[in-house]
């Protein structure tokens, strides 16, 4: 049976995990940045054990990697892997769309999508991690009713989330996202499966292009440093 010490350590590990993920998505720690367990422990007022537990959890999720005798590093983006994840995401969402359109009566799931779209359109802009865009696509896949599809799509979306957030932060206006969602829903309402497929594909390809632009921008700098790497940025920040 877990004792109080185990419970406190688990709670602290969760806090460290949440704190580091917040640093990733606020770009206080960028892909390629290096840091040590001691630095994390000092900044978050935690002991080494919960810090290590949080880091191993983040490693399993693909956010960080351990360096031999050199501490830890935020995992750099792999352009090929990101393209493959976008391909997988598109495949899943197109399959969900086909499944939704094939239903004799798709009124209930479609009404849920419409309510969701109306609510998120009122907020006008996505939040810091791509909301409500990501939530719209999650709702679309959920409406197909396949639990395994929903699970895998969630994992793919989470693995793309950091790159999508960085792409969103650099792309300026995002109004085209809401328009594309409207187009997808309009095609679904008209049971025009082919048009819905086209609109959905265009929308995901646009997100993929935004992420690809990150690498083009960094390649054009002709810098000797790896893209995004700046070990001093995080250490110099005050929390």
UniProtKB/TrEMBL annotation:
Gene3D superfamilies: GntR ligand-binding domain-like (1.20.120.530), Winged helix-like DNA-binding domain superfamily/Winged helix DNA-binding domain (1.10.10.10). Residues 10-77 form the HTH gntR-type domain. This is GntR family transcriptional regulator. It holds the Pfam family GntR. Transmembrane segments: none annotated. CDD domains: WHTH_GntR (cd07377). PANTHER family: GNTR FAMILY REGULATORY PROTEIN, TRANSCRIPTIONAL REGULATOR, GNTR FAMILY. It comes from the Bacteria. InterPro entries: GntR_C, TF_FadR/GntR_C, Tscrpt_reg_HTH_GntR, WH-like_DNA-bd_sf, WH_DNA-bd_sf. Residues 216-239 are annotated as: Disordered.
């Amino acid at each position: 049976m877990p004792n109080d010490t185990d419970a406190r350590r688990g709670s602290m590990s969760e806090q460290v995990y949440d704190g580091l993920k917040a640093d990733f998505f606020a770009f206080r720690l960028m892909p390629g940045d290096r840091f040590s367990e001691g630095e994390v422990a000092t900044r978050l007022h935690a002991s080494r054990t919960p810090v290590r537990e949080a880091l191993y959890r983040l490693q399993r999720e693909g956010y960080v990697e351990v360096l031999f005798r050199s501490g830890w590093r935020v995992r750099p983006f792999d352009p090929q892997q990101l393209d493959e994840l976008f391909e997988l995401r598109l495949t899943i969402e197109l399959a969900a769309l086909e499944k939704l359109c094939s239903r004799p009566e798709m009124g209930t799931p479609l009404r849920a999508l419409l309510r969701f779209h109306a609510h998120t359109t009122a907020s006008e802009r996505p939040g810091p991690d791509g909301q409500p865009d990501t939530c719209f696509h999650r709702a679309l896949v959920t409406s197909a009713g396949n639990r395994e599809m929903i699970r895998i799509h969630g994992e793919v979306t989470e693995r793309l989330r950091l790159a999508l957030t960085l792409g969103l932060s650099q792309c300026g206006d995002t109004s085209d996202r809401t328009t594309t969602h409207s187009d997808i829903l309009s095609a679904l309402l008209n049971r025009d499966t082919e048009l819905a497929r086209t609109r959905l594909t265009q929308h995901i390809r646009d997100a993929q292009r935004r992420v690809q632009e990150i690498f083009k921008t960094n390649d054009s700098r002709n810098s000797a440093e790896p893209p995004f790497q700046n070990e001093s940025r995080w250490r110099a920040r005050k929390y």
